[in-house]
Amino acid sequence: MENAPLSGPEKKDPESPGVQQAAAGSLVELTPTPGGLALVSPYHTHRVGDPLDLVALAEQVQKADEFIRANATNKLTVIAEQIQYLQEQARKVLEDAHRDADLHRVACNMVKKPGNIYYLYKRESGQQYFSIISPKEWGTSCPHDFLGAYKLQHDLSWTPYEDIEKQDAKISLMDKLLNQPVALPSCTEPTFQRLTN
């Protein structure tokens, strides 16, 4: 039973100080420098530790916890700001969609064409209607209350008159980007088409 696991209490062999004895056999000899190399520093393993080392270690752990908390807080703050921005954007999209739907239901005696500006008026009866005649063109003889002017966009959304210039600039910029040819950067590295003759 040479291969049986060793069990029982270990004892030091009085004849050889580096060998530990077990009840059923002997263990490998202990050497502080196996192969001539010290695996651990005897200074660090045999000296009595400074009690302030534990305090310094605790302070370091606490400081690390504070930095991790601050870092996580900063990242969560950025995410919260992004969520608020997206909520605001979603609210604006819903408001614009509701306004556009309401404007498409307004009475109109003509076919509305994208790219044109339409003027919204309100009769004494409360009915709202679109006209192509602006309040300036009516002058002082405008028969009904003017509510606002809107441009019908090509996606059938409505842009309020005060935002038309800004919206047209955005659309123009997007058109320029879409009309630019996609150019790949020129290759500066040599080509390796013919490596052999």
UniProtKB/TrEMBL annotation:
Region called Disordered, residue ranges: 1-22
Superkingdom field: Eukaryota
Protein name: DUF2452 domain-containing protein
Organism: Marmota monax (Woodchuck)
